[in-house]
């Protein structure tokens, strides 16, 4: 992930996003995949859909609020070598997402995710000693994503 460094600049940075580099074995790297996500924060890589390849779940602190606020949380379904089908979540528009934890929380054999947020505006206000006192909690600061994806024996969704 190439993402935000909290430099307080409100400019959308076109180099932020998910970037996959392939090593040729001699420490020469070639970019094989890029998807722009402004303010990219965290990526979790796992076989979320249990089809034998690695998928990604990502968060963003500063998505493009004007055009793509739903890109604060994205799932990238692996559909082939260095090919991913991106999925965004409308609930992501409600916050600044920056943490992911994955585990089989309901013990059904599928990897679930807990995604956390913060209110950077509140933190900055507190650090600068501005009115408002202690930082206020983020809106809906934690989301639980229960994984319902399944595949048949050939890796296709039923």
Keywords:
single chain, 158 residues, mainly beta, four-stranded antiparallel sheet, three-stranded antiparallel sheet, 5% helix
How would you explain this protein's 3D organization?
- The protein has 158 residues and is mainly β.
- The chain contains one helix and nine strands, in the order ββββββββαβ.
- The strands form three sheets. A four-stranded antiparallel β-sheet has the order 3-4-5-6, with no helix packed on it. Strands 7-8-9 form a three-stranded antiparallel β-sheet, with no helix packed on it. Strands 1-2 form a two-stranded antiparallel sheet.
- β7 (96-103) and β8 (112-118) form a beta hairpin.
- 23% of the residues are buried.
């Amino acid at each position: 992930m190439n993402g935000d460094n909290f430099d307080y600049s409100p400019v959308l940075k076109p180099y932020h996003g998910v970037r996959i580099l392939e090593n040729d074995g001699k420490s020469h790297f070639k970019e094989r995949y890029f998807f722009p996500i402004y303010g990219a924060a965290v990526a979790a890589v796992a076989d979320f859909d249990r089809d034998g390849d690695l998928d990604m779940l990502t968060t963003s602190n500063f998505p493009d609020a004007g055009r793509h606020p739903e890109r604060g949380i994205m799932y990238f379904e692996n559909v082939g070598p260095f090919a991913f089908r991106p999925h965004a979540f409308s609930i992501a528009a409600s916050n600044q997402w920056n943490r992911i934890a994955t585990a089989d929380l309901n013990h059904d054999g599928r990897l679930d995710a807990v995604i956390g947020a913060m209110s950077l505006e509140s933190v900055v206000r507190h650090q600068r000693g501005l009115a408002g006192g202690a930082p206020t909690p983020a809106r809906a600061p934690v989301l639980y994503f229960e994984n319902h994806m399944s595949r048949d024996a050939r890796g296709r969704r039923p």
